[in-house]
Amino acid sequence: VLLIKNIGQLFTATGMGVIDNAAILIEQGKIHWCGPLKALPAVNPSETIDAAGRLVLPGLIDCHTHLLFAGSRAGEFKARMENRSYEEIQRSGGGIFSTVRATVDASDSSLLESAVRHVGAMARSGVTTIEVKSGYGLSWASEMRLLRLIKELATLVPVDIHPTFMGAHAIPEEYRKHPESYVDIICRDMLPAIAEQNLARDCDIFCDRGNFDLPQAVRILRTAHTLGLGLKAHVNQLTAGQGLRLIEELPLNSVSHADFLTAQDVAILQAHSAVVEILPFANLFLRVMPQVSAHELQEKGINLAVASNFNPGSAMCHDLVLAARLAVTMLGFSLEQALLGLTAHAAWALNRPDVGQITPGAQADIVIAQAASVEEFFYDWTTNPVKQVIKRGVALP
Ligand code: NIG
Asked: Is the pTM value of this prediction over 0.90?
C-alpha cells in the first residue's frame, strides 16, 4: 500500500470536488481510498509520499494529439501570420499534405524517436494518458504503418497511449475528383483490418469545408461503429458546416474544434452527451477564436475537454497545462472547468471511465503539483507546474 499524505488540496474531478488536508491510499496500481487526512483508515503503508501541503490532481489526459509526424511547417506558419489562410495552403498542396509527404518519407526509427521524445516531455509535465491519431499516411499501407508505430510507441513510454485511426484526415490529392473511392477504401479495406488487428480504439474524421462532407463522414463513422470503434470528429473548425449533425446520427464520444457554432448546433450539443474538445493552440495558430464562449456552452450543461491538439500545422506545442491556462485566460473557462477539461471530461471524450478522476477503483494516475492550490496552479506561469507524476501507482523518475 502506498500512502500519499499531507495533500494541501485534492482536486478529485468527481462530485466530491476539492478536499482540503487530504490523503490517498493506493493498492495494486489503483486508488483504494481517498479523503480527508483525519478520516484515513488504519493501515500500514509500505511506502509513503509526503505531498508537503501541495495540490494533488488526477494524471492529466491529452485527449487530442496528432503527435506521430515528421517535418516542419515553419514556412507555412510564417505565411499564416502574414494572413494566408490554412485552407488556401491546404488547397495548394501544403498543410496536412506536406506533413503526409514528410511522414511517408521518414524512417520508422526517426518517427518513433521524435514521438518518444515528445511523449517523455509530456509525461514529465503531468500527462499520463495521451490520445494519438494516425492521419499523416492517407493510404492503406501508410495508415496501417502509422497505427503499428503508435502501438510500438505505447511499449516505449511510461504513459497510456490511446490510438485513434484518422485515415479520413484529408481527401488525398489523387482522389480529389472522386472522393467516394477513398471513402470506399477506408470502409472496405482500412477499417476492417484495423478492427481485426486491434490497432485503434477510436475513429476520427475531419468533417468540414474542403474535407469530408456529412454523408461521407456518416458512412465512415457508421462502419467504424459497426466494427466496435469509438467515434469522434473534427467539426466546424473552418465553417459553421453540418458537422454537428453527426452526433444526431451516431453515438460520438466527442467532437473537436467547434469554433463556428450556430444556435442550432448548440441545441444539438445540449441534447447529446458528446464532449467538446476545446483546442486553444489551434485558435492561436489559425487566428480564429471560438464564436460561442466556453462559459455559454458550460451553462447549457455541455462538457468541455481541453487538449493540446499537438501537430505540426495548427498546434506545434504539447504543453497541456499551458492549453488549460489559455482556456482560463483567453477563453473564459473557470479554473475548475479547466481542470475538469484536462481530467474527467477528457476521459469521457475517450470513453475511459478508469482514468481522469481520483476515486476508489480508478487507476492510480496522480499528479503532485508544485503549487499549493488550484489558484496558484493557474496563476504562476514561472515554474514547472508539476512536482511528481505517479502512473498506475508508480512514481515516474
Ligand atoms: O486538429 N483539422 C485537422 N487536423 C488538425 C491539423 C492537422 C494539420 O494541420 O496538420 C487539427 O487542427
From this structure: yes
